[in-house]
Amino acid sequence: MYIGKKGTNISKKKATEHIAGYTIFDDISARDRQMAEMEVSMGPAKGKDFNNSNIMCPYIVTSDELHSKIKNLKMIARINGKITCEGNSGDMYWTWEDMIEYCSQDETLYPGEFFGSGTVGGGCGAELDKLVKLGDTVELEIEGIGILKNKIIRNSENK
Which of 28, 33, 89, 109 is deepest in the core (most CB within 10 A)? Predict the structure, then answer.
């Protein structure tokens, strides 16, 4: 979700006024590195933040196009064409309004800021023992937004 209107201390009731639109986000994880970092209380750090690890759909669907449906969108993840999980946007633990209200407490949110909702329930590859490998194609689909499709390749700078 992208913020479209500046605000501080935004109430849940007013939060949707600050949403510009929605996209699909795939935050690839380097689980080996992430687990090592977690053992020493460093958080996921570089296990979640490395070249090409945060992939966003190339377009944004504006909030007015999805507003009435945002809490009931079918979501599907596939690896190499095979469905690995299915979910629904209505099953989010924290709503976009909750996140905006919380994050804007004593902090200004600016247009263009991006929020990720977290993994679809049952969609974490580590939990499913479905880790991706070189050559795999990952697809994330959200009804009304589209499909984000990427192939796992070796970073050419790290050969």
Answer: 89
